[in-house]
Amino acid sequence: MALSTAERDALLAESLVAALAVTAEGGRGPLNVPVWYAYHPGADFMITTGGGSRKARLIASAGRFTLLVDRTAPTYRYVTAEGPVTSTAATTDEELAEISARYMPADKVPAYMEQLRSSEDDMVTIRMRPEHWLSADLGSV
């Protein structure tokens, strides 16, 4: 059974890792990788990645991507959101802190941010406006 908007937003508010899928080049299947994300109801999804990564290049080429968020307990639920990229820009400390704080203890965030900032690949924030949604709670069937 499809999730209501409130149920969908509640699932997306959990600290669950998303699977990102984007069209790949050269007749290969889509790239499908785990990503951390941030989402606020009614707004764009936000992910961060290395600006020179294959993921960033494929997203720039395709101009859109899909995110899948799921959980297995107490029942299996999932949400997919697919849509166009609305912006790609250098990641700010505020964006990096927001996403990091969803997935790690607060006292670990500063060191994690410093580690990312010292890497050779500059981080970019990519925003996607969800146009198409799929969702279900398979335990309610």
From TrEMBL:
Keyword annotations: Oxidoreductase
Residues of the signal peptide: none
Any one Gene Ontology cellular component term annotated for this protein: cytosol
Keyword field contains Oxidoreductase: yes
Keyword Cytoplasm found: no
Origin: domain of life: Bacteria
SUPFAM superfamilies membership: FMN-binding split barrel
Any one Pfam family match given in the protein's UniProt record, by short name: Pyridox_ox_2
Gene3D superfamilies for the chain: Electron Transport, Fmn-binding Protein, Chain A (2.30.110.10)
Matching InterPro entries: F420H2_bilvrd_red/Heme_oxyg, Pyridox_Oxase-rel, Split_barrel_FMN-bd
GO terms assigned for molecular function: coenzyme F420 binding; oxidoreductase activity, acting on the CH-CH group of donors
PANTHER family documented for this protein: HEME OXYGENASE HI_0854-RELATED
Name the UniProt record assigns to this protein: Pyridoxamine 5'-phosphate oxidase family protein
Species of the source: Streptomyces himalayensis subsp. himalayensis
